[in-house]
């Protein structure tokens, strides 16, 4: 008995002592050996949801946070906030004729193993697209040849110039070193772990663990003199997420500097004196990153009827989702679904003429005009043949914001007379449904902000319909005219704004009358940062740096890497 | 533990009396009744619709919202009251099912003996060793549609083994009793003997078994839902904990939201454990307290 | 002796075979196509690319073979220690992920199980003979043992982590540290370990204490105890005999409780964001990494079987009856 107590006391004491020694947040331990000096280290989270397991830039959906951006770099950066391309590895790139594009590398670039970066590497990287399992294989189908003109210049000849897609390619896909990659098998290229990555960027692989990825500054990075840019943190530690709440806790304690997690309660915390900051000081706090759409399955009655889809689009109370589900950290989407950065492509006249707006009685009106009547008096309309309508809206279980949004959609559709039932299957099941087309209604937000609205129209109208739809047109909406217009947009030169606008306007008229997908709200570029160790974060206020504050995959090349060069150490208050 | 007290079904009133005489089980019975009444009258007792998201989000406790509101603007107190229904339903149904499975397997094995017994006992031993929670998690994770009934199903098919083992042991001691032998000689069939002669003598064991299974089911349901393997839109204490934990109630300081569902669970399980010990005391006079 | 253990081992081997078979069966009877999930994440648009990638993953995971061959291959891979490839941490192997997490879970479970068992039994036996103490602590034990693991964990995290700020909550060690054999690192490790350990310990402790208390009371009422008392044996001796007899069912109980405590460890780890198997379970559920989930399940089964066998051995060592019985049997 006495032994027991003594033992317990000892254990408790040991625990307390250990806690006292490390300090609760462990962050006070300063420069002790075996720890990263806090004031030289940037802690990030919100991208990596599993242990870092591959550093393969080709696997652009799964590489360890920073693989592209910190290590592998692209020819250009594209900044969606200014809609401008910035030469990065490339010094310049131009269309020398309607079908040839020439890109010239900067002079004197080297890989971090000391070998020079040459046009051979660029040729090699583009030609990887020959492999069917490389994500940009479809782009390669329009390329007839790639050749190195000299050490720095590459000429790409197109069989059919896809200006918009190519502009996307040059900023999105990183160049890989031929001398290390040329003897990789296709399997290795598309799904190898690529441990010990060698690239050209501002950081070097330091170490990784199940729950973190550590990068160390590359003091010899070319950008220091060629761009006069210097990334400030000596170490970047990216923390593997377990949950958004854990990230919030660490952010509040100052253990994480930048969190790209979805934190619904952030609005109250930003004002609560926790030294937290977001891009905007007030609602919506976040930059919009992508559009959340409701996708109706156009192959099933009554969703195969454009009038019914229009009624549905009018029935959804998106403002309620924005306010009560998201607490105003998102914004209602334009009826076209185009992000605010694409505002110049929106034909306001068309939107005003045919665009939907939340209007319960208007939705009911459209239904009754189209012949959907409530024949059994339950307040809900039936199919034209009198059979009851009961649409299933599937959102992945555990995606709590979407589950809640689904509930609002169900309620507001019911008010207009449409019966929808919310279902929350496992996310793999939803994925299955989405791809196989065995659903009534789903939500989706996969397309991110980008250099061209073509990416969105491709997503809405993409043809042909395959047995399995893996990336576009989940609703299986078939409209050859719209798809032809979309391809015409792709073939429009990127500097031909009027040409793009004219095609976009025609597409919008089809989109708004046919409603193949129903845009709901803009999902945020979730991002909140602590000013306790680093300051001068991206901000819309004053002359704060206007960069995308994120480490999400695919965003480093959208200018986010420059955020690291803007950071300043916080003044020491001790 | 034998059950000499209960040789005849007509002694059931005494069964209740002893339960009531035992201080612990009395507390348990009172507590459980409170929960049952709460569940039955939930719509009357709850001040608001538990699913309604009409209130401001994350309110602290106040006169209007005794336990505050959730991140989605639901009234925590109303959810707490309605949650009693789910827990009791799961406890009752899963408890009944796993008791029935345990009875069937245990009694068949114990009464028939021979190779049937060998097989069923082997099965029972097997099921006893396989860790139930990971199996439940795997089953529930693979299931296409998640919800309370799935959880009930999973708990029922995984939770019968212990009960079956005990019941088999009990029936083996009972089947050699004089009155069973007498019934056999009188030409009664095995079904009649098992259900008419032996069953009444196992009442306390079955009740204990049921309570144990129901208690385990309530705990397992909360655990699975906490892991996000339930349907997060049903109102139950498990999903409340899930939402509270996921909504960062710990960080935002909404401790009533965090504490209430767990406390309710603890009290319910305590009530059932207390009753169980009372029932146990029926067969073991030494445990009785005056 | 040999026959006894032989029989036990046979049961365990059979259990393992059944568990493996269940494990193999479940995903094949459930909807949801892991290969499709994999391909979808790649975001390929080109039909030929999709087909090629699907073929690649299908053959990688062996779904294109006849079922009996899949089953045999499953065993073959298993016996070579290959649990498959994780989707969550692709292309890492499930085995390597689990092995990296196991030390944390064992580090929690072993001390929690052993200490709670030992302390619970001692304390329960002690309380059984002190009427006043018994009345005072019994309600606490009842409530403790009825407490859901995750809830106690949440309470401790809130009280000691957030309000008192005594212990860190979240992860197994601070993100700013590199694992090393330094005092800094080890103390950091312990301070992260303490609360999850405590919450597992407390719940289990309540259960053992109640069990022991009831068993002791039962034993003290048994004929031999009265007989010893009547013979004038000292109370202490009687109690010692009672304790020895009461410990036996508690050893069996330990085997039965293993599964429950492991379940408790899973949810406790999740509350504390402690990077053991429980954390992996949650991640596997969230990302539908079924290979990982199955690997963990099998791993736990193996662990439980081994623990059961150890308990069998211990039982034989402490129970003179089985020792004698087996001696004459063989």
From TrEMBL, chain A:
Residues 1-18 form the signal peptide. Keywords: Signal. GO terms for cellular component: ATP-binding cassette (ABC) transporter complex; periplasmic space. InterPro entries: Peptide/Ni-bd, SBP_5, SBP_5_dom. Residues 84-460 form the Solute-binding protein family domain. GO terms for molecular function: peptide transmembrane transporter activity. It comes from the Bacteria. One of its GO terms (biological process) is peptide transport. The keyword Signal applies. PROSITE patterns: PROKAR_LIPOPROTEIN. The keyword Metal-binding does not apply. This is Peptide/nickel transport system substrate-binding protein.
UniProtKB/TrEMBL annotation, chain C:
The keyword Membrane applies. It is found in: Cell membrane; Membrane. Coiled coil: none annotated. It holds the Pfam family BPD_transp_1. The chain crosses the membrane at residues 9-26, 97-119, 140-161, 181-210, 246-272, 292-318. GO terms for cellular component: plasma membrane. GO terms for biological process: transmembrane transport. Belongs to the binding-protein-dependent transport system permease family. This is Peptide/nickel transport system permease protein. It comes from Actinophytocola algeriensis.
């Amino acid at each position: 008995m006495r032994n027991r107590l003594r033992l317990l006391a000892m254990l408790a004491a040991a625990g307390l002592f250990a806690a006292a020694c490390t300090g609760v947040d462990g962050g006070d331990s300063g420069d002790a050996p075996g720890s990263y000096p806090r004031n030289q280290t940037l802690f990030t989270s919100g991208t990596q949801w599993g242990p870092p397991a591959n550093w393969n830039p080709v696997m652009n959906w799964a590489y360890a946070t920073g693989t592209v951006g910190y290590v592998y770099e692209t020819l250009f950066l594209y900044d969606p906030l200014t809609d401008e391309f910035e030469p990065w590895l490339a010094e310049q790139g131009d269309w020398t004729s309607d079908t040839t594009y020439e890109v010239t590398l900067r002079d004197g670039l080297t890989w971090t193993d000391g070998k020079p970066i040459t046009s051979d590497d660029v040729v090699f990287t583009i030609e990887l697209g020959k492999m069917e399992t490389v994500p940009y294989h479809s782009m390669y189908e329009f390329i007839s040849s790639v050749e190195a003109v000299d050490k720095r210049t590459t000429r790409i000849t197109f069989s059919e110039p896809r200006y918009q897609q190519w502009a996307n390619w040059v900023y999105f896909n990183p160049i890989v070193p031929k001398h290390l990659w040329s003897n990789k098998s296709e399997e290795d290229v598309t799904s190898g772990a690529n441990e010990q990555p060698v690239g050209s960027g501002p950081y070097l692989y330091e170490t990784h663990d199940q729950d973190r990825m550590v990068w160390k500054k590359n003091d010899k990075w070319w950008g220091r003199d060629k761009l006069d840019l210097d990334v400030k943190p000596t170490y970047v530690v990216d923390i593997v997420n377990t949950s958004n709440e854990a990230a919030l806790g660490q952010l509040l304690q100052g253990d994480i500097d930048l969190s790209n997690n979805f934190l619904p309660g952030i609005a109250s915390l930003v004002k609560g004196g926790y030294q937290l900051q977001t891009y905007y000081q007030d609602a919506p706090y976040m930059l919009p990153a992508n559009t959340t759409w409701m996708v109706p399955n156009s192959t099933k009655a009554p969703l195969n009827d454009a009038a019914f889809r229009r009624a549905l689009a009018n029935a959804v109370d998106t403002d309620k989702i924005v306010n009560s589900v998201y607490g105003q950290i998102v914004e209602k989407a334009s009826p076209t679904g185009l992000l605010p950065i694409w505002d110049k492509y929106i034909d306001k006249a068309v939107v005003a003429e045919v665009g939907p707006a939340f209007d319960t009685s208007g939705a009911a009106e459209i239904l009754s005009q189209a012949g959907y009547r409530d024949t059994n008096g339950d307040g809900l309309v039936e199919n034209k043949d009198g059979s009851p309508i009961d649409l299933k809206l599937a959102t992945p279980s555990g995606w709590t914001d979407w589950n809640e949004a689904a509930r609002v959609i169900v309620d507001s559709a019911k008010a207009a007379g449409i019966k929808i039932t919310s279902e929350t299957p496992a996310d793999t099941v939803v994925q299955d449904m989405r791809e196989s087309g065995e659903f009534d209604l789903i939500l989706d937000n996969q397309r991110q902000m980008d250099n061209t609205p073509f990416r969105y129209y491709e997503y809405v109208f993409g043809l042909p319909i395959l047995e399995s739809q893996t990336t576009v047109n989940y609703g299986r909406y078939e409209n050859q005219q719209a798809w032809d217009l979309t391809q015409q947009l792709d073939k429009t030169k990127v500097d031909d704004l009027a040409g793009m606008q004219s095609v976009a306007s025609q597409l919008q008229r089809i989109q708004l009358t046919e409603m193949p997908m129903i845009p709901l709200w803009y999902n945020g570029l979730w991002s909140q940062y602590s000013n306790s160790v680093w300051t001068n974060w991206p901000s819309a206020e004053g002359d704060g740096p206007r960069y995308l504050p994120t480490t999400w995959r695919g965003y480093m090349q959208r200018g986010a890497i420059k955020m690291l060069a803007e950071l300043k150490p916080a003044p020491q208050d001790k | 533990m034998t059950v000499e007290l209960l040789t005849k079904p007509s002694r059931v009133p005494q069964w209740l009396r002893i339960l009531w005489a035992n201080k612990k089980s009395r507390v348990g019975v009172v507590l459980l009744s409170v929960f049952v009444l709460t569940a039955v009258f939930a719509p009357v007792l709850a001040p608001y619709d538990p699913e309604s998201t009409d209130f401001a989000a994350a309110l602290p406790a106040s006169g209007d919202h005794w336990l505050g509101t959730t991140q989605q603007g639901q009234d925590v107190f109303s959810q707490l009251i309605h949650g009693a229904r789910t827990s009791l339903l799961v406890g009752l149904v899963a408890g009944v099912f796993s008791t029935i499975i345990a009875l069937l397997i245990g009694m068949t094995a114990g009464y028939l003996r021979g190779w049937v017994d060998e097989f069923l006992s082997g099965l029972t031993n097997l099921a006893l060793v396989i860790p139930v929670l990971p199996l439940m998690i795997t089953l529930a994770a693979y299931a296409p549609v998640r919800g309370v009934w799935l959880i009930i199903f999973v708990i029922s098919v995984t939770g019968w083994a212990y009960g079956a083992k005990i019941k088999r042991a009990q029936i083996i001691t009972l089947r050699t009793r004089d009155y069973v032998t007498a019934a056999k000689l009188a030409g009664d069939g095995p079904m009649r003997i098992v259900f008419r002669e032996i069953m009444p003598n196992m009442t306390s064991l079955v009740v204990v078994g049921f309570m144990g299974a129901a208690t385990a089911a309530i705990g397992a349901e909360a655990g699975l839902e906490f892991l996000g393997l339930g349907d997060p839109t049903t109102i139950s204490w498990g999903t409340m904990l899930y939402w509270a934990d996921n909504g960062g109630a710990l960080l935002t300081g909404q401790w009533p939201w965090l504490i209430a569902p767990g406390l309710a669970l603890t009290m319910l399980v305590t009530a059932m454990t207390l009753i169980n010990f009372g029932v146990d005391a029926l067969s073991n006079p030494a445990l009785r307290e005056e | 002796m040999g026959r006894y253990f032989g029989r036990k081992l046979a049961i365990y081997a059979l259990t393992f075979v059944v568990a493996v078979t269940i494990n193999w069966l479940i995903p094949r009877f459930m909807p949801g196509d892991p290969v499709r999930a994999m391909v979808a994440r790649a975001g390929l648009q080109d039909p030929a690319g999709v087909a090629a990638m699907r073929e690649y993953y299908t053959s990688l995971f062996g779904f294109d073979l006849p079922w009996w061959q899949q089953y045999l291959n499953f065993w073959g891979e298993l016996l070579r220690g290959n649990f498959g490839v994780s989707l969550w941490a692709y292309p890492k192997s499930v085995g390597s992920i689990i092995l990296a997490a196991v030390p944390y879970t064992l580090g929690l479970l072993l001390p929690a199980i052993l200490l709670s068992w030992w302390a619970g039994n001692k304390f329960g036996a002690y309380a059984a003979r002190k009427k006043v103490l018994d009345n005072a602590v019994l309600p606490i034990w009842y409530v403790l043992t009825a407490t859901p693991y995750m809830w106690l964990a949440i309470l401790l995290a809130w009280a000691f982590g957030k309000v008192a700020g005594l212990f860190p909550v979240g992860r197994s060690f601070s993100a700013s540290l590199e694992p090393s054999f330094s005092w800094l690192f080890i103390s950091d490790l312990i301070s992260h370990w303490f609360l999850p350990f405590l919450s597992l310990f407390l719940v289990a402790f309540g259960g053992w204490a109640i069990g022991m208390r009831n068993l002791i009371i039962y034993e003290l009422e048994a004929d031999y105890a009265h007989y010893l008392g009547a013979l004038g044996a000292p109370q202490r001796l009687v109690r010692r005999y009672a304790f020895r007899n009461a410990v036996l069912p508690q050893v069996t109980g330990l085997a039965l409780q293993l599964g429950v405590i492991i379940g408790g460890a899973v949810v406790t780890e999740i509350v504390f964001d402690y990077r053991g198997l429980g954390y992996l379970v949650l991640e596997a559920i969230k990302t539908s990494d079924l290979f990982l989930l199955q690997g963990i399940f099998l791993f736990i089964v193996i662990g439980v079987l081994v623990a059961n066998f150890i308990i069998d051995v211990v039982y034989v060592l402490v129970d003179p009856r089985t020792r004698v019985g087996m001696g004459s049997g063989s």
